[in-house]
Amino acid sequence: MAKATKQTKKFVSSGKLKQTIEKRRKYQQVKKKVAGREIRKAAKEKNGKGKHADETSDDEDDEDVIVEGDGEAGSKKNKGKGKAVDGESDLEEGADLNDDEDDGEDTISSIGEEDFDLDDEEGQDELDDPDVDEAEMAKQLAELEKKDPEFFKYLKDNDAELLDFGQEEAPAKKSKKQTKAAAQEEDEDEEMDFDGADSDSDEEEPEFDGIPEAAEPEKISVTMKMLRGWQRAMIEQKSLRSLRKMVLAFRAAAHMNEAGEEDFETRYKVDSAIVFNKLILTALKFTPVVLAKHIPYKELPNGRFKVSKVPKSQARLPQFIKSHFSTLMFLIKSLPSAPIAKEDEDESDASGLLLTAVSESTKLLPWVMDNKKQLKAYLKLLLDLWSSAADNVRIACFLAVRRVYVAGDESIKEMCLKNIYSALLPPLRLTSAHTLPALNLMKNTAAELYQIDPELSYTHAFGYIRMLAVHLRGVVRSGQADKEAFRAVYNWQFVHCLDFWSLVLAGSCDKEKVIESGGIASPLEPLIYPLVQIAIGVIRLVPTSRWFPLRFHVLHALLRITARTGNYVPLSPFLLEILDSVEFKRAKPKNASLKPLDLEYAIKAPASYPKTKIYQETLAEELVFLLGEFHAVMSTNIAFPEMTIPVVFMLKRYLKKGGASGKVNNQLKTLVEKIEVTRQWLEKKRRSVTFAPNDRAEVEAFLDGVPVTETPIGSWMRLQKKVRDQKRKEIEMASREENKRAPVASDDSEDESEGEEDEEEYDMEDE
Q: What residue spans carry the Acidic residues bias annotation (predicted)?
């Protein structure tokens, strides 16, 4: 006998030799049983003994053998694999999603095909049966239309042929004998593949003398006809066996482009792109419908799920669901997600498939909410896409995160709040015309999540706002020792954080919401004061003219809080300071051939802009807009005439000096006129009041039902906003056309250089 090779010795020492021998012996036993049945069947047919009865008994024997084989294989293989799915430890409160990054993928690799073996409650074979009762089919479809109209509409739009079952031509139907024979052949193939599959073994098995090498079963190519049969069985009978076959094919499709596809054992293969798309959509749409039949659930009024107890006959179904959900997460991760400017047809289909996969994945949440380890991996996947994918995918991911938040317990909700803020911070570091729309979408969606349960959000909001205060205090205490310390605060990330928390507080403490709640204030209302103090501290930190754009961004955030919550924040002094700056003290500023500075995408003016006419006019336009918006918000306040006295005085004094261009002076004159007209209008309204100033209830109710747009300055600002929005659209349209002509690389390098100039190397997440 030849000397054993190194590979053979390694295989023997691994302890898999005995398992291999046992599997091959089992394969031989099954093969003998099948051969014996064939011999008996041939003998019975030759003797002419009751054809129809024999076929039925043979089929029953086949099913008995298959179930018996499944039980043996499942009991042996599941001994070492149950821990991979069922042995999850609960997450600690506020656990970070970056831990155990591949938790979801571990479930896929640890579960073999034997874990997909499920028996139907009816014990029926669901291949195409020509004798299916059409009336029963119509009844099932009617029930489906009532219970799940969304799914029925999908079938009607995409699979109309499936709903027309029973109207097919007679020649297309198979005989009962042919159907049973096909079923028997497929079940035998399934049994052999089931016994031979071992998804955890990726070592090549050497040959041994005296051990016959079993032929590797040929993979089944998924066809549209096969998919149609699975679909019908799942609609008619809510068949678990058809679901199992479809999920196995879905698993093969999800891993078809994986590097080690050859080592990934599965019975199915997908050879067509059309079949691939149809298979993915079928798995996404049909799986929740079938599972809802066997493990029903109920959605409670508070958004939580109440799932019924798993029947003993389907004890392995939860493990099957976990494995399928892991495969779905793997598919979502493998599909292209980055927004592409010019998509070809294939990339567009992949993007649409990703959107569908994310949207449909939420329908499996009732059966995976108790698995926190897998839910953690799912949440991390969603937030990664939410912070980097196209806008439609971002929205779908947020809706999925929101569904998890609403359906989860307190620990899951805290995990969602913490990690959505952590996912929001990194993209905020670089802001340009290309990234700002996506950043605004992220801020608005994350703010909505924090507003769902303000009481639970208070702890997180308090901690993160305190973190902003710590950054600001560190800069103030550094003094002159570190002249660049202010960059820890004067950067896009910090400004966006102030804007984000103003969105959260303005939405949660909105005046209309307080009225709807019966006058009960939001739990987040105490955080308004510290956030305003931080914002004012940022404004006063560096009062130079090059940083006026940053001041405008912060004032916009404070103005939002004033308008939505009714809390008075004195913004006029910080705006009037700009008129006293060096930019407005030159009667004849320098003329420079520069583009108008778009303050929407800048927090610091380039060095070439200060002391120029174009910069002075840009600042004046934004100054007039903010002053007008602030006074429009306060125009229904009974103290408006007294508030405007110092503002009108300062503006008139500046106009008298004449220290600006004619365009700037005209804008300021118009603002003064509108303020004075509004003051006269309000004084006329005040003459009819009968209450004293100390009557707070009456004071707050003054002009309570009058909208801001009906005041003189409010109607003027409404027109100014329309003009401003139209101008913004024209600028964005011109920018898009320019980007189409310009190479993409130049835009990226421009963004990077801009970020390097204005930002310091630090990370707020580390604090």
A: 56-71, 87-135, 184-210, 747-767
**Which tokens sit at 115?**
């874990």
Predicted confidence band of residue 190 (pLDDT cuts 50, 70, 90): very low
With a cut of 60, say whether residue 705 has pLDDT above it: yes
Top-confidence range, 48-57, 187-196, 264-273, 517-526: 517-526
Among the listed residues 110, 124, 119, the one whose alpha carbon sits nearest the alpha carbon of residue 69 = 119
Element (H, E) at 86: helix 82-86
The distance in angstroms from the start CA to the end CA of the chain is: 68
Predicted confidence (pLDDT) per residue in 459-501, tens digit? 999 999 999 999 999 999 987 667 788 999 999 999 999 999 9
* Cα gap 500→444, rounded to integer Å: 8
CA distances from 463 to 422, 434, 469, 539, 729 (A): 13, 31, 10, 22, 38
Angle between helices 548-565 and 572-579 (to 10 degrees): 150
Structure tokens at 123: 């014990």
B/e letters for 228-254, b = 16+ CB within 10 Å, e = fewer, are: bbbbbbbbbbbbbbbbbbbbbbbbbbb
User: Is the pTM above the cut of 0.70?
Assistant: yes
Question: Rounded to 5 degrees, what are φ and ψ at 150?
Answer: -65, -45
Q: How confident is the model at residue 503 (pLDDT cuts 50, 70, 90)?
A: very high
CA–CA separation, 380 and 423 (whole Å): 9
CB atoms within 10 A of CB 4: 13
What is the DSSP code (8-state) at residue 223? -
For residues 4-20, give the mean pLDDT: 72
| CB 600 within 8 Å of CB 529 | no
Contacts for 603 with CB less than 8 Å, ≥ 6 apart: 490, 491, 492, 495, 547, 549, 550, 553, 758
Name, in order, each residue with C-beta under 8 angstroms of 326's C-beta and a sequence gap of 6 or more.
Answer: 104, 105, 106, 107, 108, 111, 374
With CA atoms as reference, report the closest residue to 499 among 556, 547, 578, 548. Answer: 556
